[in-house]
Design a protein that fits this description.
The model is unreliable at 1-8 (pLDDT under 50). It is built from one helix and eight strands. The chain has one helix at residues 13-23; strands at residues 37-48, 55-68, 71-82, 85-96, 101-111, 129-143, 150-168, 174-187. It starts with 12 loop residues before the first helix and ends with a strand. By secondary structure, it is mostly beta strands. The chain is globular and about 65 Å long. Strands 1-2-3-4-5-6-7-8 form an eight-stranded antiparallel sheet.
């Protein structure tokens, strides 16, 4: 069926329609669900956080969405430009529709965590890490409604950083210059 008029104002409408198409059974009223794969190759993506006004440009992005056993597999390769600085991300994810769970493995090269700290309260600790990070992370999220957001259930990371600052919160309240650092760890749902 055609999206409702209210959906056209939703900036997530395309993504929501794609997930619905690739996780639901096909039928006379849902012919797009006969698709197995949707590939977006060499596209320029512009991601905008409407609340903070932050903007990321991903020229030459590659995204693949594939139906797999009633779930959705996502592959992404995103060279990103943010405030004139370049970094890159590749990711492989799996959305498990019956449990509304997203598992994702990410490779980063030159990502600055402090730049995303203001996007959600859960990301605020990233404000302490104002340096370029490269490495891997894998996480599992339980997705709730659009208003409730996602809940982190599992996180593992192994990254190396360089050329920046660690901003220590009170009571230390000190910035420490960093030439090189290695961070490896895990967190669960009580993060």
């Amino acid at each position: 069926p055609a999206p409702a008029a209210a959906d056209s104002a939703n900036s997530n409408a395309v993504a929501e329609a794609l997930v619905h198409t690739l996780t639901h059974a096909a039928g006379a009223d849902h012919r797009a669900a006969y698709l197995d794969t949707v590939a977006i190759d060499s596209a320029t993506l512009v991601l905008v956080d409407e609340v903070s006004g932050k903007r990321w440009l991903a020229p030459d992005a590659k995204l693949t969405f594939r139906r797999r056993e009633g779930n959705l597999e996502v592959l992404a390769a995103l060279p990103v430009v943010e405030d004139g600085k370049r970094w890159a991300m590749t990711a492989r994810g799996r959305f498990i529709a019956p449990t509304n769970t997203l598992a994702v493995d990410v490779n980063l090269d030159g990502f600055r965590p402090a730049r995303v700290a203001g996007l959600a309260p859960q990301l605020a600790p990233f404000g302490m890490i104002d340096l370029r990070l490269s490495g891997t992370a894998d996480a599992t999220f339980t997705l709730a409604s659009a208003s409730a957001g996602a809940r982190l259930t599992d996180l593992h990371f192994d990254v190396k950083g360089q050329d920046g600052l660690l901003h220590m919160p009170p009571p230390v309240s000190q910035d420490y210059p960093v030439r090189a650092i290695t961070l490896k760890g895990a967190a669960g749902p009580d993060l």
